[in-house]
Amino acid sequence: MINLRSDNESKVFPEILDYMSKVNNEISKAYGEDKITKKAKSLITDFFETEVEVLFLVSGTAANSISLSAICPPFGSIFCSDNAHINLDECGAPEFYSGGAKLIPIKTINGLLSVNSLNTKIKNMGTHGVHEMLPSAISITQTSELGTVYSPDHIKNISSLAKKNNLKIHMDGARFANACAFLKCTPAEITWKSGVDILSLGATKNGALSCELVVVFNKKLFAHIDRRQKRSGHLLSKQKFIAAQIIKWIENDRWLQAANEANNKTREIITILKKNKKINIIYPVESNMIFAEIPLDLELHLKKNNLEFYNWPSKKNTLRFVISWNFENQDIDLIKNIF
After folding, report:
1. pLDDT of residue 282
2. Are 266 and 38 in contact (CB under 8 A)?
3. Do 320 and 224 sit in the same domain of this protein?
4. Considering only CA atoms, which of 249, 269, 271 is closest in space to residue 329?
5. Are 203 and 171 in contact (CB under 8 A)?
6. Is the distance from CB of 266 to CB of 288 less than 8 angstroms?
7. Which CATH number is 334's domain given?
8. Secondary structure class of 66 (helix, strand, coil)
9. How far is residue 287's CA from residue 36's CA, in Å, rounded to a whole number?
10. 3-class SS at 58?
11. Which residue among 252, 275, 292 closes a domain?
């Protein structure tokens, strides 16, 4: 079987598993008072080149929802992509955690919000005063659900618009590492240096076992973010096991090496697909995801040859291929033979 379904199904870095086993042999304080968590927080500060507040979580949905609850009141609205994970795949969790905030989905260009579309939507709000939701935040996904990437300038332009309208910026970074690898930029350059207030940083798809963070850059949001974590039921007693993962994820640039590996394998596969005239690549390939229109007979051929993928629901005959960091070279050769 060749697994191109999802990077959620990828392997865990051996170094993470080994370190968690070592940590397991030590008795530590609970609820983040341990030395492993403190080491992780120091490492994350260096990683982003600035003082941050950090929450350690096991779910991307929790990371997104807690983040959004910190920047949007119950009577507020959050602008996001119409195909954003928070809009389509989180069962109303952002609205629930925020106490009733409303998501405002906006059509995108290849999965990326444009400044013009955001500006138009914002300008069309405010005519009903207290009767309508208060525009409060913009959420962008890096990389997007369609595998495309926001450049630093793009983020800065959105941030500039946000500041003019007193909005905060949230970034859903479930595949943050793949974006950094594609852009060849530092984590700081596409977050706080570009105007992002709060980040959901995902490591699970890129080598971790179960490790998601809320990283707060805006110091005005530091207060009580930990109480949001506790009140939502996500303050973990054995938090050191999440902290241990992020330590080994960051150490020796494993996160970046893994993301580069996935992105590079994706480029190899896209070269193979483009040689087949029956296949139409429908979005720019900028990370570790490929979306392709493929005729039914070819799809059946792929299935018969044990190639596993995801049927993308929003477009007819569209398949999504996701390449994980641990994708094998030998599977590239198998894909050549299949196509």
Report:
1. 94
2. no
3. no
4. 269
5. no
6. yes
7. 3.90.1150.10
8. helix
9. 32
10. coil
11. 252
- List phi, psi (to 5°) of 314: -85, -15
β-strands 212-216, 280-281 pairing: unpaired
pLDDT value, residue 285: 97
Do residue 110 and residue 196 come from a single domain?
yes
Are both 137 and 166 inside the same structural domain?
yes
CATH of the domain at 198: 3.40.640.10
- Domain boundary among the residues 233, 252, 271 is at 252
pLDDT at 252: 97
Identify whether residues 225 and 284 lie together within a single domain: no
SS3 314: coil
Q: What is the dihedral of CA 191, 94, 84, 80, to 10 degrees?
A: -70
Q: Are residue 164 and residue 207 in the same domain, yes or no?
A: yes
Cα four-point dihedral sign 97, 241, 289, 297:
negative
Percent of the chain scoring above 90 in pLDDT: 93
Q: Are 30 and 76 in a shared domain? A: yes
Residue 293 belongs to what domain range?
2-8+254-338
Residue 40 has pLDDT above 80, yes or no: yes
pTM > 0.90: yes or no: yes
Q: Same structural domain for residues 308 and 177?
A: no
The Cα diameter of the chain in Å comes to 62
Sequence-ordered strand ranges (E) for 37-120: 53-57, 76-81, 102-106
Residues 203, 183 contacting (CB under 8 angstroms): no
The mean-pLDDT minimum among 220-229, 317-326, 330-339 falls in 330-339
Question: CA 267, CA 284: separation in Å to the nearest integer?
Answer: 11
Structure tokens at 243: 């902290």
Q: Which two tokens stand for residue 25?
A: 């042999």
**Taking Cα atoms as reference points, which of 331, 202, 194 lies closest to residue 255?**
202
String of b and e for 71-101 (b: at least 16 CB within 10 Å)?
bbeeebbbbbbbbbbbbbebeebbbebbeeb
* 254-274 and 176-183 helices, crossing angle to 10°: 70
User: Which SS3 state, helix, strand or coil, does residue 89 take?
Assistant: coil
Is the Cβ–Cβ distance between 65 and 94 less than 8 Å?
Answer: yes
Beta strands across the sheet bearing 310-311: 280-281, 289-293, 318-322, 310-311
Number of domains the chain is built from: 2
Residues 213 and 298 in one domain: no
